[in-house]
Amino acid sequence: MSFTTDITVRFAHVDAAGIVFFPRYFEMVNQTVEEWFEAELGTSFHQLHLEGEHGVPAVRIETDFVKASRLGDRLRFALDVTSIGRSRVDLRIVVSCRGEERVRIRLVVAFVSLEPLQSCPIPDALRAAMEKFLVPQSEPS
């Protein structure tokens, strides 16, 4: 089961050529992860960071830019979990527009305590919610 969200490419996302400026994809990826946490994992980033004093910073991002996206495109971000460790989660995010792949991203986030800033185990309830998005190992990532 993938988590999906749609994001329309706005003027703030594009460069002078009218295509998405690559760092803006990373902002949209973070938005996707944030929406996943709130809609499917049962905790908003406000609850996680400010109330729970935890965070999920990106520790690795690999990106393949397949085709340019332009102002006005409606992008679909599909998120899957490819593995869950003690304190890390590996995600695959595929960005498409009208069924055409635009970007492939492998994102690793760490579950951390904010004080002190160090990794810590993913809570059992959060892990169980994440496991619903775990793709079988036979699927290409």
Structure summary:
With 141 residues, the protein is an alpha+beta fold. Helices cover 24% and strands 38% of the residues.
What order do the helices and strands come in, and which of them pair?
Blueprint: E1 3-8, H1 22-40, H2 45-51, E2 54-55, E3 58-65, E4 74-84, E5 88-97, E6 100-110, E7 112-114, E8 117-119, H3 124-131
Antiparallel strand pairs: 1-4, 2-7, 3-6, 4-5, 5-6, 7-8
Number of strands: 8
Low-confidence stretches: none
Order of helices and strands: EHHEEEEEEEH
CATH class bucket: Alpha Beta
Query: What proportion of the residues form beta strands (DSSP E)?
Result: 35-45%
First CA to last CA: what distance? 14 Å
Biggest sheet: strand arrangement: 1-4-5-6-3
Q: Counting H and I runs of at least 4 residues, what is the number of helices?
A: 3
CA-based gyration radius: 15 Å
Which superfamily, in CATH terms, is the homologous superfamily?
Answer: Hotdog Thioesterase
Largest sheet: 5 strands, antiparallel
Helix content: 10-25%
CATH architecture: Roll
Number of domains: 1
Overall residue-averaged pLDDT value:
95
The 3D shape can be described as: globular
Q: Briefly note the CATH topology name.
A: Thiol Ester Dehydrase, Chain A
Helix-strand category: alpha+beta
